[in-house]
């Protein structure tokens, strides 16, 4: 599976150098997605020596697999935040997102990177969904956003209502990463790909252990989706969410396609936007999200998207399909700031709940402001927010679910013995291995791999992802390739080989 973004705009600029063990930087940033690169640019502009280390390649995880809507209308996010926080926190969230959007639009305009202005819509297909929209409308207006109610959409099916925010933006995320990479290199920044952070000592200086050796820095920024250090227990404050996206050629495009950016508030979620490619216009449809590792068949989720699109857009031909992972904070506001038990030298940004295009840049502004000792009242409000009692109660549910998944999967893995024959192509087994411990076996491209089935983060039993041919942990979202190589999530080590 490859996203339409990587298929249409491979990353061309990589300011890399020779990794020198023991080298020192003012700031090391782990993660080369939008958060890491935007933070790197802002710090490098101030004259800092900045190094970005990326465990895979630039944009490989969330940024390169997003739907890339740079929008302040985000489903019913604001009314959800209002359930757990004060009106001041809602306004601060909006202000930070506005500044993030404005900065990215300015950079794209300045550097000639194309983007499209579009109206953003949240729509409902049910009466309860329409009630949710009216609540979102009220909170958004109180926060100063000119959101309006409408019964008119360009969608080829009836809706129970919609809200609209004019003049939002859709982007090509890899074109934006290329822009940031070029600016980062111009300011003297250094990037190392295929360099995974595996451990950190928060002494003075901070010592960062990577898969290529150690280096030191005055500070470390974790821009890795879910923080790869368990200090602060963020894995228990985040819900890992996997969602799916597809791209299509549709007869009669662009006239047959909706011009706006659309997101449903009912389940299953449907996200729609267009993408200009070489004089053509593609339709992007996303949705069918679930907690990572807790779907019986991700491949079926993708097939359902294609079926739904075919029913509503006659003749739609699938061109690309992919998936992405993001993390929702338990109280709906991203976690951005200093990492607990990090000695004030380790910073974190996570919990964007699938709205990373604005939130990632807002986080970069927030982190660079703290590091460079600037003043941003909205950032201070978000970092030191007080959660209402409803937020405290809501925090319990995800962790209860984790405990249930952990116990259930261990019982199943220990009771069921593995079959004697290897699984068929693209299929897998999880069960009790010859040593009595849970093992995960799969066959991909004719290669059968036998692994420990125990996630290296906190001991969950991994499950097979039949769409991406990966092993996904249902506890906190760590993911591993069929050969056990870590892909993403809070785990820092690969699954152990048993063959």
Question: Class by helix and strand content?
Answer: alpha+beta
At the first level of CATH, what is the class of the largest domain? Answer: Alpha Beta
Q: In the CATH classification, which architecture of the largest domain applies?
A: 3-Layer(bba) Sandwich
Q: Let me know the CATH homologous superfamily of the largest domain.
A: FAD/NAD(P)-binding domain
Q: Overall mean pLDDT score?
A: 93
The helix content, as a percent range, equals 25-40%
Shape: globular
> Could you tell me how far the N terminus lies from the C terminus, measured between alpha carbons in angstroms?
27 Å
The number of distinct helices, counting runs of at least 4 residues, comes to 11
Relative strand content: 25-35%
Topology-level CATH name of the largest domain: FAD/NAD(P)-binding domain
Domains (count): 3
DSSP summary, beta strand count: 24
Radius of gyration: 22 Å
Q: How does the major sheet shape up?
A: 9 strands, mixed
Low-confidence stretches: none
In short:
This protein is an alpha+beta fold.
What features would you describe in this structure?
Helices cover 29% and strands 29% of the residues. The two termini are 27 Å apart. β16 (335-338) and β17 (346-350) form a beta hairpin. Strands 3, 4, 5, 6, 11, 12, 13, 14 and 15 form a nine-stranded mixed β-sheet that branches. Strands 1, 2, 7, 8, 9, 10, 16 and 17 form an eight-stranded mixed β-sheet that branches. The chain has helices at 4-8, 34-45, 77-84, 87-111, 127-142, 173-186, 298-312, 356-371, 377-383, 389-394, 396-415; strands at 24-30, 50-53, 69-70, 116-124, 148-150, 161-170, 190-192, 197-201, 206-210, 213-222, 238-249, 261-264, 270-277, 280-291, 317-329, 335-338, 346-350, 428-432, 438-444, 447-452, 463-465, 470-472, 479-481, 486-488. It has eleven helices and 24 strands. The chain has three domains: 4-65 and 174-236 and 332-389, FAD/NAD(P)-binding domain (3-Layer(bba) Sandwich), CATH 3.50.50; 115-169 and 239-323, D-Amino Acid Oxidase, Chain A, domain 2; 396-488, 3-layer Sandwich (Rieske Iron-sulfur Protein), CATH 2.102.10. The radius of gyration is 22 Å and the shape is globular. The model has no long low-confidence stretch (mean pLDDT 93). The longest helix is centred in the N-terminal third of the chain and has 25 residues, at 87-111. The chain has 499 residues and is an alpha+beta fold.
